[in-house]
Write a structure and sequence with these properties.
Distance between the termini: 25 Å
Low-confidence stretches: none
Radius of gyration: 12 Å
Number of domains: 1
Number of helices: 3
Number of strands: 0
Mean pLDDT: 84
Largest sheet: none
């Protein structure tokens, strides 16, 4: 269980690297979630 928690914490740390997510530029929830999905794809391709 600790290993999964560590993976989730690393994921959030990685997402905070995207300034657009951390400062919440998007006003619509749909656009915010779309950019989170985009950031996850970019992180997955690394």
């Amino acid at each position: 269980m600790y290993k999964r928690r560590n993976e989730v914490e690393r994921l959030f740390h990685c997402l905070k690297g995207f300034r657009r997510i951390s400062s919440r530029f998007e006003k619509l929830d749909v656009m915010f979630l779309a950019f989170i999905n985009f950031a996850l794809v970019v992180d997955g391709l690394r």
